[in-house]
Amino acid sequence: MNSQRRRGWIGVRMLGIGGIVVVAVSGALSFGSVSRILPHNTPSSPPAMPVPPRVTFSEARPMSGGADRVLPGTALPLLEASMYARATGFVKSRLVDIGDRVKEGQLLAVIDAPDIDDQLSQAKANLEQSRANVKLSEANLALAHANLARYQSANKVNAVSPQELDTQVAAEGTASAAVEAAKASVLVNEAAVQRFTDLQKFERIVAPFPGVITARQIDPGDLISADSTTRELFHLMRTDTLRVFVNVPQVFASGVKVGQTATVFQRERPARKFAGKVTRTADALDQNSRTLSTEVQVPNPDNLLRPGMYLQVEFNFARPLPPLMIPSAALATRTGPPRIGVVDDQNRVHYRTIQLGRDYGAEIQVLGGLSAGEKVIVYPGDDLADGTEIEPVPLTK
Q1: H-helix or E-strand containing 238?
Q2: Between 2.40.40.20, 3.90.640.10, 2.40.420.20, 3.40.50.300, what CATH number should domain 324-394 receive?
Q3: In this predicted model, what pLDDT tens digit does every residue of 47-95 receive, in sequence order?
Q4: Distance between CA atoms of 394 and 376, rounded to whole angstroms?
Q5: Predicted model pTM
Q6: What is the pLDDT of residues 15-38, one digit of tens each?
Q7: What is the Cα–Cα distance from 376 to 331, expressed in whole angstroms?
Q8: What SS3 state is found at 218?
Q9: Fold held by 236-318
């Protein structure tokens, strides 16, 4: 009895397993049929769109409206004089020496010239003599006038001969001429007195302007010859204001204007600066160096600057049309004129020929062919063709 039940239970289990196998096989067959049918019934998928390449760009920016340039210059005094003797004699006294500061009109030295003093005395005596001769000539002229009047009265009654009358007329003319000659002699002697008076003034050497004595070549007792340029007595410089001469290159020459400010300093002391002003220019370039000679006057009340110094002069040149700046890496390395890639409003690349200026290393000037604010491709490469659509990425510094 138990064995019959066991055999029945086994039969039921076998029947259930067979059913499961049949269902699984049927599902697999149905799925395969559907998978083969569906691709023929569904529409085809659209092709994938190409992705634009990411390209770095930089905007063209204008340079500043002014350009600072430092140029070398040479300092010279505002006024400078080499002083020579105009009177011959011996140095009686010397009142200043090298490095002394003097005022205008200050006495520097005295020359002892007794011969000039004697000549002046003689000229004054001659002047007095000529003045006395004028009085004598005028008296003779008055006498001649009186004699001529008497002879003329006597001639009316035929009391004198015509010959005697003519003699008195001639005497009156001679006396009149003598008066004119005496007056002329007075003028000659006055000029001689003035000449020796001027020469006597040259015995005193005075400063023509305030300044500093930079050279002294005489001592008391030295013989000095007049009008000799072989021996300088003193050398005087005015240093309260200096004239700094700068040779401005041709590229900046048109930007130099009279009245514009400039800063002057020493290379070894760049922090100590002096304000100056352009006072004049040569208004023409030197044919050899192609530079414009420019004078900058610098107040020097504390005498911190010295004539003859090598100085640095900083100018600010205005740019009416400042050039543009782009990265040097934006240049397309191809044959022919320089070109750059420019991004338009539709993010497409177009190559353009430009005119280059100065090269600053990482950046370069553009003088023509580009406008401020345009997007310029950086590192364009050889595979980026004209008209290519890109995804522009700003250049990060």
Answers
A1: strand 234-249
A2: 2.40.420.20
A3: 666 788 888 889 888 877 667 889 999 999 999 999 999 989 999 999 9
A4: 10
A5: 0.62
A6: 455 555 444 545 444 444 344 444
A7: 9
A8: coil
A9: Elongation Factor Tu (Ef-tu); domain 3 (2.40.30)
